[in-house]
Request: fold
Amino acid sequence: MPLGNLTSQFFANVYLNELDQFVKHKLKAKHYIRYVDDFVLFHQSKDQLTKWKAQIRKFLKRELNLELHPNKSNTLTFNNGITFLGFKIFFYHRLLRKSNVNNFDRKFNQLKFLFKAQTISRAKALESFEGWLNYASHANTYKYRKHLVREFNKHFPLTSNKQIGNKKKHTNFMRKLNQSELKFSVQKTLFLFNKNLSIQGIAKERQIKESTVWQHLAELIKFKQIPLRSVVSDKKIRRILSKVYSKKDKLKEIKRRLKDDSISYDEIYCVLASIK
Reply:
């Protein structure tokens, strides 16, 4: 079975369950973590870890016909950090391994080339890019991810040059977009919305709540990526705006003034997003 396949992960967990039971119940190790075939044990005593390592090696060979990797089975101290699942883990922070960052850089350059050659769509590039962002978010990478978002919006623009009418307005919009670090989950909703899927349809396609879709639409309205009237009817917009006395008004206050059950909190939220 191919590496990374969900079926492979499932059977690895089933097969290595014997190892889990041995470490927890026979060795009585209190601090043990395993993910598929990668695992670590923690203890204050180096001698204890060395003893456990020998016992685990013997157990794997005898019971599961497996062997520890000769170059990846080490006894280390936290002071120098430990490598686990592609991260360099220290006491109070986590870093991405340089080799993983370099691999992504090569893949990102390839995506830029394919997009420029019109071989792949922005949505396809976004799917790959979002996977890396989600992975990187498990490390202390806020500035790095913010930089990547700016780079992605620069090389994979939402609007092609042929569709630009007012260049000044477009430039201001792109500046706001870059500064906002708009979540890519929101941009995936935009892609489906532009395909004329309903809110219910988007929620079903993405397997998220309808309330989450409404939040995404409000973000898109706020940053001028979709018009308000494509989400809320003109009649409702006028009704809601007539009851907005201040930008600081709360949803409940506006809803109470409207006295109209046909207007939802989500619609009010979208209208407020358009005037922020």
